[in-house]
Amino acid sequence: MKNLLMVSITVAAISMLSAGVNAQNFAGKTVKVIVPSGSGGTYHVYCQLVQRNIGRHIPGNPKTIIQNMSGAGGVKAANYMYNVAPKDGTVIAMLSPGVSMIPLLRKGQKAIRFKTRDLNWLGTASVRSYVIAFWHKSPIKSIGDLKKREAIMVTSGRSSMSYLIPHFMNKTLGLKMKIITGYKGGGAMNLAIERGEGEGRGNFYSGFTGVRPDWIRDNKLTFVTWMGPPRPEVLKYTYLRDLMKTKLHKDMYDLLDVNLQVGQSFYAPPGVPKAIVKMLRTSFENMVKDPKTIAEAKSRRVPWATRTAEQIRAQLAKGWNTSPEATAGLVRMLGFDKKLKKKKKKK
Q1: Inter-CA distances, 197 with 114, 131, 183, 331, Å
Q2: pLDDT tens string 77-87
Q3: Looking at the domain assignment, is residue 3 inside a domain?
Q4: How far is it, in rounded angstroms, from Cα 157 to Cα 168?
Q5: Could you list the residue range(s) of the whole structural domain that residue 194 is in?
Q6: Whole-angstrom Cα distance, residue 347 to residue 335?
Q7: pLDDT for the residue numbered 340
Q8: Mean pLDDT on 129-158
Q9: Which residues, 6 or more positions from 126, have their beta carbon under 8 angstroms from its beta carbon?
Q10: Contact at 8 Å (CB) between 91 and 266?
Q11: Over residues 99-113, mean pLDDT
């Protein structure tokens, strides 16, 4: 009887192990990649690169598809992934870079229904330099000009880098950028600038090389400052951190800069089994090193400066360890405390 029991336990253990192995084989499944913006910009390009290349590195070579989910500067997609997306590894997403520190900066707000630190990180496709750029027809040619006259900037939402950075610059440097929200992704913002609805926008430098290389070639843009990981083309412009006059402002800058050091990062939602997360992470790491993927990124004119899941977690830790004074100061500066005040008044 004892031997029979041992045999039964062994068979059950083998069956469970076999089921775990089979669960990691995605043959016949479809993996969806969520883009946290509309089409027409480089967020879509990076998600396309992952969607087109990761399938051959996942056991079973599943079919892959892509879905755009714009809204609130990337918050809508993050909320969906955290609360609604299947927890079986069949849905992964890119985090909009400006969103990585939002749970800290907008803590306690109903609209933020995700926790960045709980996400299952797969890796970063690239970190990129960020610029503030103006259309060539605008009279704005320098930071000094922004102190003298109002300039209209376009962005998607208040959680996006193209809102956070100009607003931060206004408050710390006394500039006059008027920021208009509501554009569904980089493509829509580029069209707005071209049509004259806005004069400028914040964007990754490679956001222009990837979808509007002629704008740089034909000198249709004026760059007034840059931040984030450096690249040779931007070093001749003013580095934004160098304009910060106080240690407090520098610390606030560094907190915002975490977003750019995390970069175009991909993740699976919390609740996905550890074995599947490990498999997806390995598949992602193999995919970003694949010469075929690297060649495709080069052909799309976007950088491929990758980071591991461990490096993402280290950058996020820097942000969460920012001094309470700098964190609270940035929350007030960006106006994220206003909704909390309204909420308390209603109570």
Answers
A1: 33, 19, 11, 29
A2: 999 999 999 99
A3: no
A4: 15
A5: 130-259
A6: 20
A7: 53
A8: 96
A9: 46, 206, 263, 264, 297, 302, 303, 304, 305, 306
A10: no
A11: 94
Residue 305, Cα to own-chain centre: how many angstroms? 14
8 A C-beta contact, residue 254 and residue 325 = no
Model confidence, pTM: 0.87
Residues 40 and 134 in one domain: no
At 50, is the secondary structure helix, strand, or coil?
helix
- CATH code of the domain covering residue 253: 3.40.190.10
Residue 190 placed within a domain: yes
Among 23-37, 130-144, 273-287, 329-343, name the one with the lowest average pLDDT: 329-343
For residue 169, is it within any domain?
A: yes
202 alpha-carbon distance from chain centroid? 14
Sequence letter at residue 204: F
Contact at 8 Å (CB) between 196 and 136? no
Q: What is the DSSP string of 107-153?
A: TT-TT----GGGSEEEEES----EEEEEETTSS--SHHHHHHS-EEE
Residue with tokens 């509309």: 38
- Domain count of the chain? 2
CA distance 239 to 135: 20
Check if the beta carbon of residue 82 is closer than 8 Å to that of residue 129: no
Q: What Rg do the C-alpha atoms of the chain give, in angstroms?
A: 22
